């Protein structure tokens, strides 16, 4: 009988973070409430088109969440949202009038006129 070895390899993260997004998460963790272990990205149902991006502090790990560890903190991706986000890039953008996370999501098939939500 042959001994079969299973090889595991690291899989790429579902979401790629730009340096500015990583820095923003580090900044958020620097001012996070006590007990915060990271920030969590999810896609709750909301808006005209169906799904929206939501980033919130998190105090516990959920069983099926994806975990992306960075020097400045941890980004969790809601397990139910991962399929909607695979291959996305998360960026932090600031200008004179607005600041926020911006997503380039190849899975989004459309979005509402106000930019609040997207469809897959």
From TrEMBL:
> The organism sits in which domain of life?
Bacteria
Listed GO cellular component terms? cytoplasm
Please give a single GO biological process term from the UniProt record. iron-sulfur cluster assembly
Q: Which residues form the Core domain?
A: 17-116
Q: Name one GO molecular function term.
A: 2 iron, 2 sulfur cluster binding
Pfam short name (any one): Fe-S_biosyn
| Family matches, as PANTHER family | IRON-SULFUR CLUSTER ASSEMBLY 1 HOMOLOG, MITOCHONDRIAL (PTHR10072:SF41), IRON-SULFUR CLUSTER ASSEMBLY PROTEIN (PTHR10072)
State the family it belongs to: Belongs to the HesB/IscA family.
Name of protein: Iron-sulfur cluster assembly accessory protein
Source organism of this protein record: Sphingobium limneticum
């Amino acid at each position: 009988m042959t001994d079969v070895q299973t090889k595991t390899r690291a899989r790429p993260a579902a979401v790629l973070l730009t340096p500015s997004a990583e820095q923003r998460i580090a900044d958020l963790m620097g001012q996070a409430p006590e007990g915060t272990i990271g920030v969590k990205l999810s896609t709750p149902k909301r808006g005209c088109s169906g799904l929206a991006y939501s980033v919130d502090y998190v105090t516990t790990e959920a069983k099926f969440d994806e975990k992306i560890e960075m020097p400045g903190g941890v980004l969790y991706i809601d397990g139910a949202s991962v399929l909607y986000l695979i291959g996305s890039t998360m960026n932090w953008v600031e200008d004179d009038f607005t600041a926020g996370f911006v997503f380039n999501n190849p899975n989004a098939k459309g979005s509402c006129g106000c930019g609040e939500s997207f469809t897959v």
